[in-house]
């Protein structure tokens, strides 16, 4: 099977001016049915995960490649009235919806073809695998991790981007038929609506702090936390000023390791695994940051935050509360069996974290005193009604 390496109607021109956006919006308004939408971002290169290219396709009007950078307010003013409230088809919606929301774009209804593939029981749910299996078209892929903020964009990258939506409408139709045939379309609709609602209030990037750095919980001493905080604040200011991904300034693993080892000399700092020791300026610069933190007033050093008391570790749970853990394990095993029977991943039937919370609350936490209280707690943990319908009898039998 020869791969489809370019859109059948040719590579669309990149639209990048306010006049282009207005014309595209008018054309899209004349189209029929849902819109297929995708984005290309550059989070591995730029500070945030904003979209540097938005691909939109609609029947009767074709594909549009839109470059919002430099004219984002004008982009939103033109495209939001044309696209908001329509039926959207996206592959892996949670990865694209935030950057689209930052542009003021929100779907009316949503169909996520990747999640549809998971619910349908497919082993491979990437776009290329699904289009090949269901539409007998092999898409040429391979540019997803590129720096999409660079300009101009090479023609083969643009072809790749356009192909992301070339067959998405047909794929959505096919997946809806498959899910309907399997009796899962209503379940999928609830999942899609949950994703849509989750992203409906997003207007910009989520704020983070130094305590959100992966691995920060492994640091316990105040001086380690003080160094981690100073490294993070310095890294953040550089990344924002230069519009660089934070990992290109100082990777998280390196930040945590520097804070853990507290190097006192440039030589010690250069020995930290992953540190850019070949750059002398980096050694002296980050060495000064570490020194600044360590010579600051110890009274200002942060303290380790203790997580709120809640679930014990699995080992502590099984050792100290064996009956409770046995009931949790019984519920988990039965849900695993249901997963195999329905050909739906266990985590899509009920999130493992939700199962642990509910099992603990019902057997030891004393938050659930009756099976009748199970549905409300499941809803409080964002379980959808179809998930509750499937798992309530299992939880009732195993936990009570």
UniProtKB/TrEMBL annotation:
SUPFAM superfamilies: HRDC-like, Ribonuclease H-like. GO terms for molecular function: 3'-5' exonuclease activity; nucleic acid binding; nucleotide binding. It comes from the Bacteria. One of its GO terms (biological process) is nucleobase-containing compound metabolic process. Residues 221-304 form the HRDC domain. Pfam families: DNA_pol_A_exo1 (PF01612), DNA_pol_A_exoN (PF18305), HRDC (PF00570). This is Ribonuclease D protein.
